[in-house]
Specification:
Aspartate Aminotransferase, domain 2, Aspartate Aminotransferase, domain 1, 7-stranded mixed sheet, 4-stranded antiparallel sheet, globular, lyase, PyrdxlP-dep_de-COase
């Protein structure tokens, strides 16, 4: 047993750090060791508990109701509000879409109206539940266009979506106008606040200019907010809130059509560990309202200082003034964004590359946490060095042969042989055991990603999806004894 734990620690050493404020995507770090410890101990204490049956584990039911109640207070919810703890933002979004669809059984080919900046989880929901996404272009500030959203609503629309904020650019959509347009047609309006839900209310308290987006906005019928982001809870917990029990009811699933127990589920999961819920509850109780306000002050101070420092770098620009804790950066022609990301990684910082989309260039994404504040000066120094290195090395170019190969590939019929040929052409597999490449044709994670990202950036959205699916398929092959 000790050997297994030792091996776990050895393997984990190759992962991105989840503490220290240097990983600016995927994880959200309060910078408070005691909070982290409390969360981990609570997860461990409830790892064997099962949220499938609330009558068997009443402590889980109590914790869920208290977590939902705290979220309701934070989001200006009416007394009628109800909610459910889910496994994460994607499950909350899936349930919001499924509930809207099932509330309108008479609509055979339902639609939902989305700004093009809505999270990809809505596209996943569309794929799973057969709800057609109607994509509406956003304005030059990357916020949803309320008039265009209203014009896209028709008799088949079951849901209208806004973001608070959108992930890619960190801006809050004009929820008031969007919700009003939905309400006028008797249609649900969901606000995806998975990122901002636990930090924007404190931003408003601190006097920052935050557009209205909570249940205080008439016409908002549901909101999703993640606890494992800026509530700084362990992965993975989110809350889906509905304005009334009637709006939530289609979310539930029950089946007595078999000889076993009558299945009753409030989420996509049946069996679900009580650990994440207990971890979220314990962290929320430990931090309290004052603790979250302090953390919000820290994270927004970090955001402001980072933005000010970027203003001194002529090669970089902020895409749109962020309303929350997310910053998207563009580079000028002298500087390749994918190389900047690699150079940051070489200096111990993870920043996320975002591909070009609909005429907008590739960007660099930063999800800032409270733990980043003490290290802002180091971050800006590393960023300046990374930019200088990217300028010196020049833009990443894709081999013309590889580019031509991508251009003729059909994503609908991409074969394993096609993908293997592309890996060979791109130098991602080899036979010499060179570092960063697999041995004897095996695929390994590359040490630097700029060339790979530049190659993906050339591809259409459909081709990019097909290539990444094939890549994931290659990575996730069983290790046999």
């Amino acid at each position: 047993m000790t050997d297994a734990l030792t091996r776990l620690r050895e393997m984990q050493s190759a992962d991105l750090p989840v503490h220290g404020g240097r990983t600016l995507a995927y994880v959200y770090d309060s910078g408070l060791p005691d909070v982290d410890r409390i969360g981990r101990e609570a997860v461990a204490a409830y790892a064997g508990s099962n949220g499938l049956d609330p009558t068997a584990f009443p402590s889980l039911l109590r914790m869920e109701n208290e977590v939902v109640g705290t979220a309701a207070d934070l989001l200006d919810a009416p007394e009628t509000v109800v909610g459910t703890v889910t496994s994460g933002g994607t499950e909350s979004v899936l349930l919001a879409v499924q509930t809207a669809r099932d509330a309108q059984p008479g609509i055979e080919r339902p639609r939902m109206v989305l700004p093009t900046t809505a999270h990809a989880a809505f596209h996943k929901a569309a794929h799973y539940f057969g709800v057609e996404p109607v994509l509406v272009p956003v304005g030059p500030d990357f916020r949803a266009d309320p008039a265009a959203m209203a014009a896209a609503i028709d008799d088949r629309t079951v849901l209208v979506v806004a973001s608070a904020p959108s992930y890619a650019h960190g801006v809050v959509d004009p929820v008031t106008a969007i919700a009003a347009a939905a309400a006028e047609r008797g249609i649900r309006c969901h606000v995806d606040a998975c990122i901002g839900g636990w930090v924007l209310p404190y931003a408003a308290r601190l006097g920052r200019d935050v557009p209205a987006w909570t249940f205080a906005v008439e016409g908002v019928t549901s909101i999703s907010v993640d606890l494992h982001k800026y509530a700084y809870a362990p992965k993975g917990t989110s809350v889906l809130l509905h304005r009334t029990p009637e709006l939530r009811r289609p979310q539930f699933f029950a089946s007595a059509a078999w000889p076993g127990y009558t299945m009753l589920n409030s989420t996509m999961q049946s069996t679900k560990s009580g650990g994440p819920l207990a971890g979220a509850w314990a962290v929320m109780r430990s931090l309290g309202d004052e603790g979250y306000e302090r953390l919000a002050r820290d994270v927004f101070e970090a955001v402001d200082r980072i933005r000010a420092g970027i203003g001194d770098m002529k090669e970089l620009a902020v895409v749109s003034t962020p309303d929350s804790t997310l910053i998207a950066l563009t580079t000028d022609e002298s500087c390749d964004p994918f190389t900047v990301c690699d150079e940051m990684a070489a200096r111990g910082w993870y920043v996320q590359p975002q591909m070009s989309y609909a005429g907008s260039p590739a960007t660099i994404h930063l999800s800032v946490s409270a733990a980043t504040l003490p290290h802002v000066a180091e971050l800006l120094e590393a960023l300046a060095e990374a930019v200088a290195a990217a300028v010196a090395s020049g833009p990443v170019t894709v081999d013309p042969g590889v580019a031509a190969f991508i251009a003729v590939l059909d994503p609908l019929v991409l074969s394993d042989d096609d993908f293997h040929g592309l890996l060979l052409a791109a130098g991602l597999i080899g036979t010499d055991g060179e570092q960063g490449r697999g041995e004897q044709g095996q695929l390994a994670l590359p040490q630097r990603m700029a060339e790979v990202n530049a190659m993906l950036d050339l591809a259409s959205a459909g081709m990019r999806e097909a290539l990444l699916v094939a890549f994931l398929d290659r990575l996730t092959r069983p290790r046999r004894r």
